[in-house]
Amino acid sequence: MAVLSRCTEDPGAPARGHVLLVDEPRLLDASTARRRIAGHLTELDVSYPTAPSTPDVALVCDAPEAAARLSGQGVPVVYLHCRHRATELPAVPAVTRLVQRPDWLSERPTSSQQPLNAVQLLAPRRLTRNRSRSGCLVLVSAYEADDAERADFTDTFLRPAAAEAVHRTGHCDVVCDTGFTAVRKALGPVAGVRVHRAADVDFDALHAAAETFLASPTLTAVSLAWARNAPLTLLPPLGPDQRDLADRLRRLVPIEVAEDARRPAVWTPHPGPWGPLEPDDDDRREAQRIARRVRQLALVPTAF
């Protein structure tokens, strides 16, 4: 990260506050959280992923080293643990520590650092899908997997699943957070497939336009389907955290895991599985609430 220095402000200009956004770009849930909160910070000066001057506050999403560096520079940090973990959360220096943990995951491990405040799922700003939808969105998070596991997943499942998606729905958008180059090369021969890096594409919009949705067991995938009351089929989990989330989710709602993309159930999921976890309007406002915390800290540092 570049060395930060204070910029000269116009004394006659209204105070806006300057916030630096930092995430782990290889992690789907971190990119999602950063974007969804940033969408409610329009009245602040926002920098990403580095700042030309010392920010008033930093919002850091699953990037503990950046949080430590910024805290060491005297920047107040609002830290969000974005992804589901089956083990204890890492200790992170920050003035405010949050963990994305919906009520139905309330028994998850905590951090030795206190306080740690749980927040609900971060919903997309748009809560509806397109009236006319086509194609398939496949949302892959391979952050936890090593190179061999990612390669095996791509060869044995992702490539045939993408081909099946094109056959059934006409076209397929594959979004991945880690291993983008290898996935794009592996899926290149499959006609009708487009591969995107998660950090570079609006997958909220892709989901709104897609007829079917297959996704790794992540809080991003759950938040999209949950907030929009849309069907979801889970991809085979990669790593212990995804396996834990998939197991917990399937105990609550009727969701298939697509072990074999040729099975009809993969493509005809339950049309509205979210009854037991049905959100109300307030549940969908978590991103706004976090943005409000950041805004208060940027404009009135003593608020915390």
UniProtKB/TrEMBL annotation:
Output the superkingdom of the source species: Bacteria
Q: Which InterPro entries does this chain map to?
A: CGA_synth-rel
Q: Where is this region: Disordered?
A: 266-285
NCBIfam families with a match to the protein in the record: CGA_synth_rel
This chain belongs to which protein, by name?
Answer: CGA synthase-related protein
Species this chain originates from: Streptomyces glebosus
